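Troubleshooting log. The previous run stalled partway through. Resubmitting the same two chains, unchanged.
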Amino acid sequence: VTLDAAIITGVGFDIVHNFAIVAAVSLGFYSVLAIAGVYHMSYGDNLTIGAYAASIVSTASWPWWAGLFCGALAAGVISIILEPIIRRFYDRRDFSGLLFSWGISLMIVQGIQLAFGPSGRTVDGPQWATWTVFGSTVPAFNMLVTMICLGIAATIWIMWKVGSFGLYLNGIASSRYTAFSLGLPVAKITTIVFVGMSVLGGGIGALLAPIRAVSPTMGVSYTLTAVLTVLLFGSISVRRVLWGAMVLTLVRSIATWSFGTSLATAAMLLSVLVVLIVRKQFADPTSHASI
Amino acid sequence: MHPYRLVLVTSLVIAASFFGLDDYRASNIATGLCMGLLAVSADLSWGYCGVLNLGPVLGFGLGAYATAIAMRSSLPFPLAAVAGVVVAVLSVGILAVGTIRSGKADPIFALICLAASLCCEQLVNYFYYFTGGSNGIMGIKYRSLFLTSGIDGSNTSLEYPLLVLFVVSVSLAGVVWLVRSHLGLVMICVRDYPDRASSYGYDVRRVRLQAIAISTALAGLAGALFVPIQGIAHPSVFNSSINVAVLTWVALGGGASVMGPFFAAFLLKMIQSELGSHYEHAYLLALAVLLCVSIVRYPGGLAGSVRLLNARRLAP
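Second attempt completed without errors. Output:
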């Protein structure tokens, strides 16, 4: 009985842990898509930047929370430089913004490879104790990562749902032109969301650095996961993105246990494809009217 | 210059350049030709029909692997190439049928193809019994169809590069014919005015699916031709950096122009081959910069600039 409880607890924590990360990353990606109308394909690279900043801080023997701060700061600074360039593609009904941000992603990946080499880096995390819950051993740091990622996801959800800022966001997501004609500071809010989500992405990357493989291409897989999450149930509300994150996390976990990590991404893609084929209403990135 | 004449002149110049070259450089030119065909295939769906595919190497890689597996089973090259094309078209066709719709173009197909190409990189590692895993399928040799020279009847020095040139030239001429045909004009109409095309009675979704099928067939053919040159089908053919490279070639060469992307791909691939693997990261970084700059500053690419110059020259 103890063994069963331990397995169930371990598996349950694993699912919650992965869900928290996928939800936090996907909601950041979704927010930029909804507000700016651009598939920000270099969003995942904020995590890479954050992770590499944390690795530099770790090499200098600074504490791990300094890496968290520096990771978020580095991603924020780069997004402040990037935002005025990518601004010209906001709400354009073509593929130029998607392609441009994908080019930026490749620039970041290759730039990091040139600077730090193609091999991965290790980052020292805090040497905290492990907790035993129902016979299952859970590292305390992993639990902290889960709590922070869930906190980030909840913050983004509240940002969209509560207060006048949430109303502004929903108004801009519905129509930038109408929001502008009503006197909303559309450009300023878009910049805040773009930079803010990049900062959160950088923070998540720095947070994940001690427990995940840090490599120049780590951000690409997070971008891919966020894209599939947003596509799964349509990019029209925060709730649907959270449902998408839940379903994809379950699919990935089941595929990983059954076939190994190699087939996890393929299983996610297959599930998205099946949902897209079964549901005849496809996600429309430029339609946010039902938020 | 008339497009057919341009294809002919280009083919003759490249054919002449083969003579007097060593095997290595002849292989580089043949590789450049395959990449040129891949760029033209991406341009056909994106430039002419407005259907962006962020994973253009999906058809290329599937064609390469299917051809390699068929050739490993001692199938002659032409049949293996046909198998490669069929596998590529069927696989990408399933993705297209699920994601392509009528109405204005959306990026779902593009994103799904990108995800699929990255998945394929993992899948070929997983199914190592069929695909050779991370080592790929090695030892793929072209066996001469016409000549009997060569120690074991394989890799006769110039026959295969010339065969590649012939197939690529015929394909280019076919694409030129296609884009000037009725279907080509409908594709352009669907790209620019999908609602208007629909009101004229054209099935927009079907036209897009046709464009994707033809484009994928060309990409699969490029992959099939590519395998015997390298002698290996490797998981890196699905790499995301090649996806970016292909779209950069199209963006630089200019969308909706057959020869612009072909020249951009051919020349940039030759430069990459000359630079070698030592400068690979720097080359890819430069490619990404070129992609971003061409999108922002020169959205018409090389072909667009030529058209602009011609328009200025002819203006009264």
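Takeaways: Residues 57 and 238 of chain B are 6 Å apart (CA to CA). The longest strand of chain B covers residues 137-138.
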